[in-house]
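Slide 14.
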Amino acid sequence: MLWDVAPTVLAEGPPRRLCGSRCAGSCGGCGHLGRWSARARADLDSSIGGAALSVLTDIGEKSDVPRLFGYLEAAHSGGNDYIYCQCSLVDALARLDYVPAVPVVEAIFDSTVHSYLRIRCAEALSRRSAEFPRGRGVECLTDCEERTREIAIGHVDISVPAVRERLGLIAADPMEGDDNRRVAATRIS
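Slide 15: predicted structure.
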């Protein structure tokens, strides 16, 4: 099986490591066997473990939530060394509708400087956090990433002071994406 040769492939430099990780990820479609293998090999501290964790975040089930949440807490504690794992884990826990992860995802949102991780946190929080529309969602209206602003525009509470004004600025900004401008204008009309 691929997992048996993965340690050799993943140890042979970045190009082969990337190829090996993608190949391991594609075996995730193997259903129960792929899930079982990913569960058995997932960890944060090795190439093969990272590839298995990536597979598990893609194909994991409700029964994997405690394990995935544990990995998210550990990855968050590990900081920037685990940015990509945090991205995948936030996506997986949101996909699996794990509301108890909200405080950890909020902490990650507040502390990360990685824009793609902020996007994933904003997406998860917009669907799972009752406080997002009046809190972090308002903050997202001024984020540097267009996708993060898009999430906020669709979810922010327009009764919050200054939100209508910010949406008006977005709607009138020629540098903002057309979809964001249109949705912002619709929200305040």
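Speaker note: The chain has a mean pLDDT of 88.
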